[in-house]
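User: I'm curious what two different proteins look like when written out as structure tokens. Can you demonstrate?

Assistant: Sure. I'll show them one after the other, since each token string lines up with its own sequence. Here's the first protein:
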Amino acid sequence: MHAYLFPGQGSQFAGMAKDLYTQQPAVRQLLDRADSLLGFCITRIMFEGPEEQLKETVVTQPAVFLHSMALLHVAGNQFKPDMVAGHSLGEFSALVASRVLTFEDGLRLVQRRAQAMQEACSMVPSTMAAIVGLEDAVVEQICAAFEDVIPANYNCPGQVVISGSVEGVEKASIRFKEAGARMVIPLKVAGAFHSPFMEPARKKLEQAIRDTPFSKAICPVYQNVDALPHIDPQDIRDNLIRQLTAPVYWTQTIRNMLQHGATSFTEVGPGKVLQGLVKKVDPTAQTASFQS
């Protein structure tokens, strides 16, 4: 069984989808329509940068989503997924790929999500850090000692990203090093994603999600909040609403996909981050990149 994976924020780069735009008239039409729907020329920033502008949440999220959509457009009828999953933002790409959302509705929700998250980040200083080389349980135990620090992304065995207040993450980082973490890497992000710090953004996005039509998925969608497969539109909607303030259970997602029969994983979007994470969950898993 073939699983398709969709990357999230952090995999963007200047020049993304430019080859597809120049070589594929259908992609050109799709991305030109995206410029119109978004109300600004995102294609120019995707193709030319500058990198600093491309890193802004309100640009990054629709840019990564559109790269994945362009690749799906090229695949056309050859895209026949047995199961799909997306990491954080990538879940919206997975929902379009599984026909739960239309392209237009997916793009509108991604834009609303990015705006809401950027606004939430400006309200209270917060941040994230990657903890490498500790068991999940140890990371959870140390986070539990702080009121304002939580595990946010379970990326692969031995790699958990934490979210919290700037001061809380700095103090917790000392504890992680004392506990034997191989690396503690502060992330250059605007705020504490997938934590209670995103509650203002969750509230703003919730109404937009409730107002958007959701269809039954054509294949199981493994969602971030529980790592389980879903097809029912109402279940998918409820899980998506919870996503902004809940951890991303990616390690558990890949394990469940493997347990449910996945024999190969193809990453659809910029970069190869998710392929690397799959290999850390199961070094024998077949992975591929669908980038051009």
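Here's a second, unrelated protein for contrast:
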Amino acid sequence: MKMHFLSGGRLRMRKAIFLPGVEKSATIELPIASVLLRHAQGNVLFDTGCHPSVASPAEAEARWGTLARVMTPIMGKDDNVLAGLSGLGMQADDIDVVICSHLHADHCGCNAFFKKATLIVHARELEAARADDAQAQGFFRADWDHPMPIDTVNAERDVFGDGRITLLPLPGHTPGTMSALVQLERSGAFLLASDTVSLRETLDDGVMPKHTWNAEVLAKSLVEVRRIAAQGATIICSHDDRQWQTLRKGADAYD
């Protein structure tokens, strides 16, 4: 199995949202990681990043409303997972499974393009996205509500039954946030932590981002992440630019 890191876009936000106590005017640039897993039984995409249209400020506000002023896209028109796949000689129809770590707009924005894929979503995440106050919580139907088959999970799930890709419910950021524990032959174990660990500081120092759904639940999930890290897995943070700069990307795969 090969693992490719692809860009799902880039955002600018207030740094204090992630690191309470810093100067309120300070901002932080956040990469958005999408991960292609080329498994013998199918091509799997973990998160799809932002919809390409949000590269335009006007389109971002039309799609996200006032949220576009809180998390501002600073990505080019070709900075998205579709362009990343194209660089590998692939297209959206080559993807068999899309794992939705959660249903926020910067993680599932390109779901609509993967019309031949099955979407895997935690049942509690789908429930939250369908709630009356969903949009206020960052869930937009244009990003997640599509006609493709949805496979809902409630517990740990071995995607192909061989231990290569195991989904782990690690809620707290949202009610149904999931991570994926990936086992590679040569490169070892990686935990695609999604927004359970947006920045490394959350894991190392226990700093809870302000936009956390439930800090107590997230703290319990972080205990599990630390246990997995202690067993030797590399923890991939969803938005940590320092880590992002060190990762191999595109065709330079991990195996």
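A detail about the second structure: The chain has a mean pLDDT of 96.
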